[in-house]
Amino acid sequence: MKTYIKGIALIIGFSFASCEDVIDVDVPTGQIRLVIEASLDWEKGTLGNNQTIKLSTSTPYFETEVIPVVTGASVKVVDMDTNQEYVFIDQNDGRYTISNFVPIIGNTYNLEVIYDNETFTATETLIAVPDFNSITQSTEGGFDDELLEVNVYFDDPADEDNYYLFSFYEPGDLFANVDNFSDEFLNGNEIYNFFEKEDDDDNDQAAFQPGDTVEISFYGISEQFYNFSSIIIEQYYGGGDPFSSTAAEARGNCINETNSDNYAYGYFRVTEVVKASYTFQ
Amino acid sequence: MKYLILGFCLLCSSLIQAQEKYSVRGTIKDFSNGETLLGATVFLKGTSNGAVTNEYGFFSLTAPKGSYTLIISYIGYESISQDIELNADQTLNFELKESATSLNEVVIVADEPEQVSIKKPQMSVSKLNAGTIKQMPAVLGEVDVIKSIQMLPGVTNNGEGSSGFNVRGGAVDQNLVLLDEAIIYNTSHFFGFFSVFNADAIKDIKLYKGDIPAKFGGRVSSVLDVRQKDGNNKDFNINGGIGLISSRLAVEGPIVKEKGSFLIAGRTSYAHFIMKGIDELKDDKISFYDLNLKTNYEINKNNRVYLSGYFGRDVFNISKILKNNYGNATANLRWNHIFNDKLFSNLSLIYSKYDYQIVLDFIELDWISDIKNYNIKYDFKYYLSDKVKLDFGVSGISYNLNPGEVRPTSDSSPVNYLKLDEKRAFEGGLYVSAEHQITDKLTAQYGLRYSAFSRLGGQNMTNYINNQPVVYNSQLGIYERGEEASETYFGKSESIQNYDGFEPRLGLSYQLNEVSSIKASFTKSTQYLHLLSNTSSVTPLDVWTPSGKYIKPQRSTQYAIGYYKNFKDNTYALELETYYKTIDNRIDYIDGSDLIGNNNIETEILNGEARAYGLEVLLRKNKGKFTGWLAYTLSKSEQRTLGGQAGGPGINKGNWYNTPYDRTHDISLTGIYKLNDKWSLSSNLVFQTGRPVTYPNGQYNYEGFSVATYSSRNEDRLAAYHRLDVSATYTPNNKPDNRWKGEWVFGIYNLYNRQNAASVTFTQNDQTGLNEATRLSIFGLIPSVTYNFKF
Predict the structure, then answer these.
(1) CA nearest neighbour of B752 among B786, B722, B719, B714
(2) Which terminus of chain A is more exposed, N or C, with fewer CB under 10 A?
(3) pTM attached to this predicted model
(4) Are B592 and A188 within 8 A, CB to CB?
């Protein structure tokens, strides 16, 4: 919501006399670090037993080689409320998997990754997500009156601070569109979010047409993950523009217990997610 | 206190030599329209005794009884010389005629004409008059005060499309911008593309980059003092211009001939008129407009009243998506009163307001924020003797800040009504300052300003655990919001926090010979208001916040020394200045800070410090067919924020880092060449080191995206910024008896079409998935044409 208030300034400011081009830039090279992508997402209506944690390392910014995966680490998650221990199995391709994970709303989980004789830990709580009240399509909502958008509606629980993450993905695209928001201005109300694609000649992206499908994922997230993902999202979609904040590293919740300077990138999250697919009429 | 004692001793020493003395006082005006002239010189030929007119054209001069020749001069005007017999106090008013060549005379003067500017202790000041500003090439032909001062040494901004300006490595909010004494909180239209000052309504501007006179306070970097025209008191006059973006019209004339006059000036962009005719755009609106008003009336020779006002607005409506508008409004009622030949006074009642509104139709949200202040000022100038002039006065400003109010725009809106706490504050000031000619060669300007600030109640204040609004998380190495412990309510009559500041101002001038001098100054200043902005460029949305329990006032100390020389019969002038400035309690923002709609700003910020130093060179050519100036600045501007109460090393690991407005080199060349009576040509050439930015130092894959990693703030730089602008002014043969006078101004901005980066963004190409750097450049080559008229 706040991103809109701020983002609009940029849209108006630069719409009338500007020009964009891709240039070559020399960028500095920082330290290579372990990356922990530990997203334990429990899809509503499933058991949530199958979970994957991915380990890799960072690379120079313009590196185009395949992502260097990390194997040989030991990965486990402990449910702090039940003391149940879940050991993830190394698949030797950077993925560590488990098939008997038991997600419980509100429980606190602890991640431990041991790699290269250093121990990384993180703690998160499983956050619930509301159901969709409805999913509709329209043209008059959104930014452009002539283009189709999908709208999702849900009830925000009152009396608590809630944070949400949305992902809209049209099969065939390389990337999903991700945004997050809090209920700060919206607490206790029926909230809607929408997604609209624009026609863009530069990259042959096309607006939604009848028959197109969009896959929607809707996560309940913690305040800490909201803060982390806000930095990443702002930088990903507009990092460096004059109206963006000074770029800063998004520090996740993984702590290196052995050597705190050698911290890891990434995040350990435990969320509930609602997934839906919508086909435009 | 010690400054006061020192000042008193110096004063006394000058009063000892008593002798029979008389005063001449009066007002100096422009012959053609009765506008008072600011900074005109009056001096007694053959003596070092002189005076300069103040903001209201008033002067007073005291000398021993005798016969003298009085010389009255003002650059661009023909001098008057008049013999006087000084055997009684007398009032003499003068009217100067514009010199025939004035149109091509560049009036950028260190301060006043030669005899005085070398001698006056005032340094670090630049003056531009509206005539000069109008002759400089401007983007899209829109004459722009804020852009023109960026051609001076020590003044920059964050490039096209950024609001405000930076002085000597200071932030935008550290400039006190005054339009007829009223504070202007946002100087820009269209997000910085144009400035709010309509050149047709402006008499002149003065920019103090340091050595700020004691009568000004409240900002730590500079004062931009913009004065509106009083209006022609002899004749009705209409001035106007038609440009590509906007058109202007100014009407002025006498109310009562030679007693009172008025000026009404308006300017509006007109893209929205065209948009109305286009079916697809008829519900959209993009426009800005200004309205300037001034009127004055001379009640009698000792009393004069002025009323001035400004109202400006930007409007952006994009149908069914958003409505956005913002602007400044000011009003000032002044009373000039001359008590006697030596004591001049001015009482001002001033109001100013800035507000910002955005309505987002697609989420049915209406956002409003504003800042307003009422200001009362009483200033005195006392011409104590021929050696000593005193300025003293008091002021009080009452602030009311509404940092944000959110409303749903319909019953079905998901938005809840929310109003952030309104903030109230009072700022008082008291000053006394003397300009003292100690010997023939040594002149001093010494003064003291005392300011006091009270953050007033009428709101809840949050208390934090361990009194830490921001806490360092040592495990993750990041700063996080503190935990609220309780709230304390402060009643409207209570004050939440008080601050004050002693601000000594000292300037010295030593005249080496008739044409050269050295000057030195020392200035302390305190700033109680802060503009919250965590972006590289300030935006119209940014909200002001007062000092209080968690935010301390910014305090600056600046030292400067300079060398000044006029040569080749005052055709050329050289100014060399070097400065060192420190600022305490500069607000800095923690990583991921969230300033919008936040009632607890203290959880997003830490109090840091800043320092800046530099060398400025200004070489001017004042006379001849070719006039202009070359400015060069070598400088450094850095900031550092330690963890302090929050713990931890601080922002950017507690290291000094470049401010976004650090420019190592800054070269500006402005030239105006008068080819013949019909044509005059002008150009600007600018070269600047690129803006400091933070580039990624790596990437990692997360949730299918390439996420950039960063280390130190502002360690990289955009490519150097440079461009050349040219313009030509064509004045057709105007019949002398024809009242209608017109001129055409043809311009080309960025002649060689340099793609200057306003920003470089790092993104992942959504077709290839590869990371790429995208440069955004705002203005390429832009031609323009403007027609100006007068009748």
Answers:
(1) B722
(2) C
(3) 0.90
(4) no
